[in-house]
Structure formats: structure tokens, C-alpha cells
Amino acid sequence: MLIQKAAITELEPLLELFDLYRMFYKQKSDLVGAKQFLTERISQHESVAFIALDGENPLGFVQLYPSFSSVSMKRSWILNDLYVKKEVRGMGVGENLLKKAIEFAKETGAKGLFLETASDNDNAQRLYEKIGFKKETNYFYYYSI
After folding, report:
1. What angle (nearest 5°) sits at the alpha carbon of residue 64, between those of residues 62 and 70?
2. What b/e sequence results for 40-57 when a residue is b if at least 16 CB atoms lie within 10 Å of its CB, and e otherwise?
3. Rounded CA gap, 67 and 111, in Å?
4. Could you tell me which of 31, 27, 65, 30 has the C-alpha nearest to residue 45?
5. What letter does residue 53 receive in the DSSP assignment?
6. Which domains does the chain have, with CATH numbers?
7. Does pLDDT of 140 surpass 90?
8. pTM (2 decimals)?
9. Could you tell me if 53 and 17 are in contact, meaning their C-beta atoms sit under 8 angstroms apart?
10. Strands (E), 19-139
11. What is the pLDDT of residues 74-115, one digit of tens each?
12. What is the model's pLDDT at position 141?
């Protein structure tokens, strides 16, 4: 398995995974929209994505969005998307993608790498905690609109 940073010139494998990811969350397939969205995010340096490949076969991806901490005056990363094809789940793809995301956050001098998951997503929570993520208990998160 090879994990590499997604390049704007080689979006096809990422497009397939991104479309499957969106369909997992009950969205309609939209490869045209996905290509536009990913092209804009990556070309404008608004996200960084890593893709896991087995030869030419895309296995999964992780996408990070930058954020900043005014208090620490440092960058942080939001792990917004993580997807692994159903047929290769449980084979270490997600774990390797998470490790790559952590490595990237460290390389960029980030304060941290943040993510959120559903309270009933036990499999993901076990994986996150196995990798070293800590569940936040000191803050409440609010959402509007």
C-alpha cells in the first residue's frame, strides 16, 4: 500500500473515493461536482488530501482543512474526511491514513489535528483512540445555520 499526497494533476483516483464517501452519507453521486470541489480546494491550498493506493486501485483517502489558533498562534488541521472502501476495511488502510495525517500535521508545525465523529461510531472511535487521539471533554461544540 502506498499513501501519497493527492495532486491536482492526478485527481481521478481521489474523485472515485470522494464520490463513494459522499454516497455513504446519503448524497447523490456527482463526479462533476466532486471534481470541481476538489480542484478548487487543492489548487487554492484550502485542503490537503492523502490517498491510499494498491497499485492503480484507490483504497481510501483522508482530507485535512487548515485552521488556526489565535491563542497559541499556530496552525492546526481539521481532519474532515476519512473514507476507506468497504471491501478493504479492517486491513489497516484507515490506520495508515491517520498516521500519515498525524505525520503531516507534525511536519507543518501544527498545534494539533482535530476531528469529530458520531457518538455511535464505535469502530471509528476505537481506531482514533488506538492511534493516540484523545476524546475532548473540556469543551462544548456549538453549530449554527
Report:
1. 155
2. ebbeeeebbbbbbeeeee
3. 10
4. 65
5. E
6. 2-131 (3.40.630.30)
7. no
8. 0.92
9. no
10. 48-54, 57-69, 74-84, 113-115
11. 999 999 999 999 999 999 999 999 999 999 999 999 999 999
12. 83
